[in-house]
Amino acid sequence: MSLVNDPVVVAELSALHKEYEAALVGNDVDTLTRFFWDSPLALRFGVRENLYGSEEIEAFRIARSPAGLSREISNVKIVTFGDDCGVVTLEFRRSQTSGGAKGRQSQVWRKFPEGWRIVSAHVSLMYETYADQAANLIGLELPPQYRDAVIQNIERSGRIAASLFNTPLTDETLSAPRFEP
Length: 181
Known about the structure:
This protein has 181 residues and is α+β, with helices and mostly antiparallel strands. It contains five helices and six strands, in the order H-H-E-E-H-E-E-E-E-H-H. It is elongated.
């Protein structure tokens, strides 16, 4: 059985991950591209994109805006298996200027003859409420002083919609005329 969390391997992967993180927030596309396995089998599931293969991953990095990439990371965990495989997971929070979104990330690293490469990655956001998620999706900042009121209004709308969806319709139920401007 391979050694789990050999301190030497953990330290090696930890140093590489710190370099990756610096490249990420600095939008260093060349370094980010180098960290991913150069293969059509490489995979990156992002917040709003599914990328299959190193070419799609690189194209995403090139097209991505460099704005709003700063973040604070926490709860970094590294688990290695033998001297050639490891998993890095973490939680992050984007800066308030880029919405303050909370998220999580995982990466599967594999050591090849040319060095460590990410073979699979996943990034997702976590929201406190549906209101936070909806605001983020449309690029709207939800001011803290209105947050509770917005959540109450969404909950009320949900209760109204639920009662309408639960109203049975029969063949005799007349539909509203179709509006055409």
